[in-house]
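Document type: protein sequence-to-structure record

Subject area: structural biology

Format: plain text, a pair of labelled lines:
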Amino acid sequence: MDGFIGWVISITLTVPIISLMILYIIIRIFVDSKEKSILLAVDLSTIIFIISVHFHLMTIFEQSFLPFILLFLLCLLLIVFSLEHRKSNVTSVKKITRTTWRISFLLFVTGYFILTVYGMTAEIVKNTLFL
């Protein structure tokens, strides 16, 4: 059973797009609204993309970037807070957190694809040039 759980976790972190689609399908069964299903699947899979980007960075650069990722998320939260505070003096913690989380999803999905392409390209070049 431990091997199966490890296998599921490794597939989830290696290919988080599959987990996003599976989450959406499962949530769609229980939630009637298509829009709410998509948003909930995005919210739940954001952490998977963050962890996946972290492991991509560790694999490519052989160094942990977790403190920088956390610092980036904190800076993003502060930026969203300041923009929201400028827009209206009454700020909602829930709205700021949700906005930050969804922006993080977009950024980390983009980062995941960029790091995947970069990692594959770097390995191909390394293995081709240094035979």
